[in-house]
């Protein structure tokens, strides 16, 4: 029985492209929280656009920093939802299929998320 791997690509904020494969367990990224995550990201993007306008309009730096803090918090909370969903679905599946690479990827992702 041959082992098939699905390769896919992730692009980080800094433009770094990460390409990796998942083994034969049929890993996919369809999760229960996708709609909630997309809604939260849309709100954060809208909020960030309004902060950009604040800077363009020369608004007080303290106000801008407070609003940036709100966006940062919203993004961190969105990341927590993604992490929880990932653990509940992908990691449970990976453990069931002995996929140690998925667990190592999670460890790296958590490390970067926590910085």
UniProtKB/TrEMBL annotation:
Gene Ontology biological-process entries: negative regulation of DNA-templated transcription
Domain of life, per lineage: Bacteria
MF terms in GO: DNA binding; metal ion binding
Protein name as it appears in the record: CsoR family transcriptional regulator
């Amino acid at each position: 029985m041959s082992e098939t791997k699905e390769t896919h690509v992730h692009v980080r904020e800094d433009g770094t492209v990460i390409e990796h494969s998942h083994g034969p367990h049929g890993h996919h990224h369809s999760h229960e929280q996708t709609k909630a995550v997309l809604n939260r990201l849309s709100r954060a993007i809208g909020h960030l656009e309004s902060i950009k306008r604040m800077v363009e309009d020369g608004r007080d730096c303290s106000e801008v920093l407070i609003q940036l803090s709100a966006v940062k918090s919203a993004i961190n909370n969105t990341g927590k939802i993604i992490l929880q969903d990932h653990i509940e679905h992908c990691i449970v599946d990976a453990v069931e299929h002995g996929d140690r690479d998925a667990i190592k990827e999670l460890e790296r992702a958590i490390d970067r998320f926590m910085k």
